[in-house]
Amino acid sequence: MNTKTSKQTILNSEHYRTQESSHKTKIIDTSFRSSTLKDTNTSFTEATFNLSDYLAQRRYQVEAALEGSITSGYPEKLYESMRYSLMAGGKRLRPILCLASCELSGGALEMAMPTACALEMLHTMSLMHDDLPALDNDDYRRGKLTNHKVYGENIAILAGDALLPYAFEHIVVQTKGVPADRLLQVIAKLSHAVGARGLAGGQVADLESEKLQNLDLATLNFIHSHKTGALLEACVVSGALLVGANDEVLQRLSRYARNIGLAFQIIDDVLDITATKEQLGKTPGKDEKALKATYPSLLGIHESRFQAQKLIEEAKKELAPFERGLFLL
Amino acid sequence: MNTKTSKQTILNSEHYRTQESSHKTKIIDTSFRSSTLKDTNTSFTEATFNLSDYLAQRRYQVEAALEGSITSGYPEKLYESMRYSLMAGGKRLRPILCLASCELSGGALEMAMPTACALEMLHTMSLMHDDLPALDNDDYRRGKLTNHKVYGENIAILAGDALLPYAFEHIVVQTKGVPADRLLQVIAKLSHAVGARGLAGGQVADLESEKLQNLDLATLNFIHSHKTGALLEACVVSGALLVGANDEVLQRLSRYARNIGLAFQIIDDVLDITATKEQLGKTPGKDEKALKATYPSLLGIHESRFQAQKLIEEAKKELAPFERGLFLL
Predict the structure, then answer these.
(1) Homologous superfamily, domain B3-323
(2) pTM (predicted TM-score)
(3) Is the ipTM of this complex over 0.95?
């Protein structure tokens, strides 16, 4: 089997399927800084492939690329604010999905790194604005003060407004070896994913739903498929777009990503009920306390788990042809 | 003389030079809706060229294009909020500058219309966020309630966040007949102009300057060249980029736009002191009341007028070769 095909494991749903039971151990050790990972061209063969190592290595590479993506400038406070949130850690799942999809489609990691960083910038700016007093009014994120608590609301708004276009500028200026028409497709995909028909639309639908007494499953699906699903899908599809993947590949990856995105959300809802604080790394029961409609509240825990499992199996089916070595360019 | 060359008049600084003395008549009659303007291909020859007619016609075309750029969708409130600010009127100076620059460089109007609309979307979202309580806290803009006063702060933030990426999506999806590499240059130009090294940077520098007792001329120039100048420059340059103008043309248009942008700001500051409420259409003396550093406060009125005039003359010089029919593709 081609070594490239083994890389599909990152896109394979095992990671998600096992998440519920193994949630107490962080997927990536944040202290991971092995010198062996400094070689950005290290590749994984089927024999050596280990998901944790793959995630840790790609995450390390993403951190390094993000570190270099925004340097300082005037006014300093703006750049500090942008960097504060962009470099605040996290799993870097979105950029890694983009890199993995590019590798799976036969592309080189370097082709996708600017887009991967751009995806993290878009994700970060959405969190910065989501944390604002006028929205979720959160004081902490990942154990650190939120951007507006450190820099003030005005700077947090403007730093988000600066990160968003910078994502697109970064793609155009930094991507090497990708034809212009493909880059335009990537830009269209990402801009769609964070706009009214994607992330922003999902956020507004979520805000609107808070006023409702009874939320139906269709609305809950709309919220999650837009608020988190659209950008996840853009991560997976953009990696393949950069390589010039054909329509069938793009469709398969799109369906894969949408199924996994929804399964992820369902499992997240279930964990909020079933997991302990130690397992979650955050206080459970938040949804119930906030009287928030969730999959378990609408379907029950058993049915929610069943639905998540079904979505994961459907997602895996989409990747089966990659495993058989088809679709490699 | 080629008819195209006469179109440089819109970019000619006469418009700005006469603005101070004729400010009581609005540059464009907002009720202008002549049926003769419905032909989007109407061109102006040197003999028939009239600046007011040109501006009115292009504005009408921009309004029509903006009207069609965002239709309704779910959640309705988000689309309503986006349209509320985008369709709130104004001179549409930024999109018109882009169209004029495209025409001047020998391009067809249609090539530049999606970029022209995108520029207005970017400008609009910056105003929506600038009006927020955490920033300028304005209740009214152009005689209408500001976005957050109608839809709430949360929606105003998210609608701005949705308009920004939509500008880029609109360029990619709607532009016809322009090679992909040129579109990428336009996207890089616009994203740079509204980011940390452009508009957002200027806004933060402006916020920071409010805390200072004494503002120097260099900082004042930085604020204006970034807060308003960068996007104006992007308007003028992007129109020529779409046509594939050469470096000399781009450099000339860039210098032209930067000079005119600064002259515009200086005149605006002078008018705040010298003009009446009737002439301005808004309350004068606002800067002095807010103890804001302005060009007249740093240079005096006489020197400010002299500097503005000098900038306008330098700007005109940049356009001289166009008048002689050079640079036409």
Answers:
(1) Farnesyl Diphosphate Synthase (1.10.600.10)
(2) 0.88
(3) no
